[in-house]
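One record is kept unedited as follows:
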Amino acid sequence: MRRLLALLIGVRGRLAAAILAATGTVAAGVGLLATGAYLIVRAGQQPGILELTVAIVGVRFFGISRAALRYLERLSGHDAALHLVARLRTRAFAAVERLTPGGLEDERAGDLLSRLADDLEEIEQALLRALLPAAVTLLTVLSAGAAAWALLPAAGYLVAAGLAVTAAAVGGAALVAGRLRSGRLAAARADLAAVVVDLVEGADEAAVHGRAPDLLAAAAAADARLTRLSRGAAWANGAGSGLVALGSGLCLWLVARAGLQAVAAGTMDPVLLGALALLALAAFEPVAALPHGLLRLDDGLAAAARLEALERRPDPCPDPPVATRQMPSPRLELRRACLRHRPDGPWALREVDLTLEPGKRVALVGESGAGKSSVAQALLRFRDLDAGDYLVGGVDARRLPGADVRRLVGLAAEEAFLVEGTLEDNLLLGAPGAGPDRVRRALEAARLDAWVAGLPAGLATPVGRGGAEVSGGERRRLSLARALLAGFPILIADEPTAGLDPEAAGAVVAALTAAGLRHGLLLITHGAEGLQEMDEIVLLDRGRVAERGTHQALLASGGPYARLQEARGAPSR
């Protein structure tokens, strides 16, 4: 509960306005029914019309006030909720950005999406349907009890006690039901989202490998669990509504009984009896919202805990408290670099030395799992080294914000992300303000200019969902063009030729080697294309540097590099 209340500090003014407006709405409703009852009873006595004027005006006043205050309540309540969600969404996205990619490797995409969407909605609903009605109920106990006491003191105590006891019973039952679920509804919703995302994104592969029935069964099981928990919540909500009906009915009977006794004793005007009875009934309006709302409170608390857990995750590469102000030169050096992805995990890199600078072209080769991608993560400062040094322009990278490092070194990723837009939209992700001339030069450097010129819509051609309308080679060259457009002094190309036919692979490597004459280039590859053009080749084996040198020198030595190339069918010279 403290987590949720702490989140409300930033919107306390808007929330207070919503509570006052909601309390005013209940008061206007009580006044409308009480005044209406008085008007009906008094009119039955056939007095002069002037004697009914105040009651008639009162009915109109309370009716209009109730509608106006209800509007203000909705407006101010949702204003507070949406401001809260906007702040939380900003914080959540900031946490994701801070943790990406090294701090989120154990997160499923669907679960992360559920935190950014469903959990925020649960917090919004907890505010509107639980905390707001609870605060209004507390104020109503006091105000309705005082109003009833003004008509009949004994009735005032009965109304206040009836509201308090019913609210406590309903609230206690709802909170117990919520505790029994222990936030499992939010977890079940996240599990279902994760399974559905896996099913949708992996539908083709699942069908090819015969795993579609397994994924469908997992989705059905997750849906059944969510349905079972939701059904339990519905039963609890119904039981709470029954308690409200029982409490309001019992309170009405006790107030009416006390009123009849007062009328019989001559201590109360019988005309006021109807007003007193309807006042007691109308005062239960906010209590009726508690069963459903307090059930949502537990989900809101669980959602707040999940978001807090995301925000409290340690940053894999924390920025320094006092950063170096001057941008260093684009010379990257790894000295005896050691890295592992988990504190208790195996070493991904062990005492690796590497130097990159503009104009130098280096190839990083080795079997899968040798540590090539770990080198890229270290250079991009997605992960800090566990031992050794990473220097950027002679400055320890830990003294630089990660964003500053990534202004000097860019990545053309193996699986380039393409947004569902046009070719131009995807290119401009690298440099949103780039003009047509810069875009044209980047396309030429990536050997994409002829392909784009042959498209009917040119750069306005849509790439489809996830880049489905472009081939693998075109996707990788788009990633390269995007990185070149951004103008990084150092460029890392991660497996740029993986899965490409020889012609496409040759075009990509030609573009990379040409770019390496102006930029520093780190080519991470399994293939043999373009290795002859590299200034240095570094062979990694289980995180260590097994060999380094030029292509010809390494082949001539007959060592691990030569054997690797021979196994892959590359020419021996």
Summary: Residues 14 and 80 are 5 Å apart (CA to CA). Residues 332-567 form a domain with the Rossmann fold fold (CATH 3.40.50.300). The beta strands are 332-339, 349-356, 361-365, 387-392, 395-396, 409-412, 490-494, 520-524, 536-541, 544-549.
